[in-house]
User: Which sequence fits this backbone?
């Protein structure tokens, strides 16, 4: 089940929290609840991605993106992710989730996200997301301009660019 109450709490805290520029790193603290774990008594791999949704929502609220989307009737979609799992996260653990916009291209925003327990990164993901409208995807430059961001494009670092190129060559069914 989708964690609607957790989502509401994250959005409320973001609304009351300090404002961030879209290029700043957002950070939130979360606890792993019994509904987040799998049969091996650890944070479920799918729930890692759901928790990462919370980080993007927090950043989006704090930089003004969610308000812009609401005003313009736009939405958000995830177009892909690459996740690395490194360390188990048991129930009731407190974790820190960081989210940073690391690049844009003509269609996508690229976010680097990490779930950290103590001083160890438990999981990290590169997530490709887009703003959508009734006409299709909205160019990130147009979104950044509407947010009065200091830059309208962000060149992805080499490792993100390599992922973008690999995804372009990926075989699809």
Assistant:
């Amino acid at each position: 089940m989708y964690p609607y109450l957790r989502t509401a709490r994250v959005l409320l805290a973001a609304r009351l929290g300090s404002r961030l520029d879209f290029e700043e790193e957002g950070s939130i603290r979360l606890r792993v609840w019994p509904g987040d774990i799998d049969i091996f008594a650890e944070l479920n791999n799918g729930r890692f991605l759901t928790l990462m949704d919370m980080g993007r929502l927090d950043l989006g609220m704090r930089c003004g993106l969610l308000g812009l989307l609401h005003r313009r009737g736009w939405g958000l979609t995830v177009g892909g992710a690459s996740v690395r799992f490194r360390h188990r996260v048991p129930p009731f653990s407190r974790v820190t989730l960081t989210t940073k916009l690391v690049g844009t291209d003509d269609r996508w925003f690229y976010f680097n996200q990490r779930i950290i327990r103590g001083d160890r990164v438990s999981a990290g993901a590169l997530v490709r997301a887009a703003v959508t409208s009734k006409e299709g995807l909205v160019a990130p430059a147009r979104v950044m301009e509407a947010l009065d961001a200091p830059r309208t494009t962000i060149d992805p670092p080499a490792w993100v660019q390599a992922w973008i190129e690999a995804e372009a060559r990926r075989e699809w069914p």
Observations:
- The chain has a mean pLDDT of 96.
